[in-house]
Structures are given as C-alpha cells and as structure tokens.
Write a structure and sequence with these properties.
Structural class: alpha+beta
Oligomer: single chain
Number of strands: 5
Shape: flat
Largest sheet: 5 strands, antiparallel
Helix content: 25-40%
Radius of gyration: 17 Å
C-alpha cells in the first residue's frame, strides 16, 4: 500500500483507504494463485482485462446512459480509479469528481494529471467528507493554493502520515 500511496501525486481522502485495500487484495489474489486461474472467477487471468488500470489513476469515464447523439450533453466525466470488480467484462469502480459518487464502468480513457485535479484531490483529502454528501456540505471549487515546488515536502509528509 505504501508504494501506491507514494506514487500518487496527491494525498488520498480517508474514505479512499477502504478502496485501496480492495485494490491491493485484488492484485495479491492475481499473484498468489497456484495456476493461471483467478481465485474468484475460475477464469484465466487476462492482462488486457484484469490489469489495465491502477488505483488512483485519473480517467474520463463514459456515461453509461448516454447514446451517441448530436446534443451538448456531456459524454464523459472526470473520475479517479478505485479497484476492479472482477467480472468478465473488466469493469472498474470509479469515484466521480463531479458528483462524489462511486460508479462502475467498463469504458474509460486514461488522462494525465493536471494541477487542477491534483489541487482538487488534495482539498478533498483535507476536508471532512463522507461518501455521497449533500452538495451544499462542501465546495470543491474554493480557491486553494496551487501546488508548487515548496509544497512538495508537505505533500510527502501527508502521504507518510496516512
């Protein structure tokens, strides 16, 4: 777990720890099988399906209800990857940054972290947030200090304290 926490460019919120444990256990179960079969599904491990995303990765998930139409409705949303569900389609649980909900999707596009996403995740880690809070409970768009080189040591300490 420490290597995953240290590799992330942001501090994780406390409610992400449970999902990090699920992710680590799922990875360990892939490694500790006596054959090439997965412990849970008795199906062969497929790298392209089972190991295609890592915990905390920033992605754009595609909305499952939107069909391809010529409207201005968003077709994807910002999300953070949590852990794979272990089903045959390779679905993954994601934390949606816009709605603060956890959803399951099987199609996404990996993206690079921007400073805005890193600042948003760090502010989320500092705030006392529960899953699916009412929208007025907190505002993620509050002006926060941008991450600079001088804050690197502070972020490191945040990761070590978790």
């Amino acid at each position: 777990m420490r290597t995953i926490l240290y590799s992330l460019p942001y501090c994780i919120p406390s409610f992400f720890l449970k999902h990090l444990i699920f992710f680590v256990v799922s990875r360990l179960n892939l490694l500790t099988t006596t054959s090439s079969l997965n412990q849970y599904g008795n199906r062969p491990v497929n790298f392209n399906r089972d190991v295609r995303i890592s915990f905390g990765e920033y992605v754009q998930v595609y909305n499952s209800t939107n069909k391809r139409t010529n409207t201005m409705i968003e077709r994807s949303q910002d999300a953070i990857a949590l852990y794979p569900t272990g089903n045959s389609s390779g679905s993954v649980k994601f934390y949606l940054l816009s709605t603060n909900k956890i959803v399951t999707r099987d199609k996404w596009t990996s993206c690079s972290f921007s400073i805005d996403i890193i600042n948003r995740m760090n502010s989320l880690a500092k705030s006392p947030v529960v899953l699916n809070p009412p929208e007025e409970a907190y505002d993620l768009d509050d002006a926060e200090e941008p991450i600079t080189a001088t804050k690197h040591e502070e972020l490191r300490q945040c990761r070590l304290n978790m």
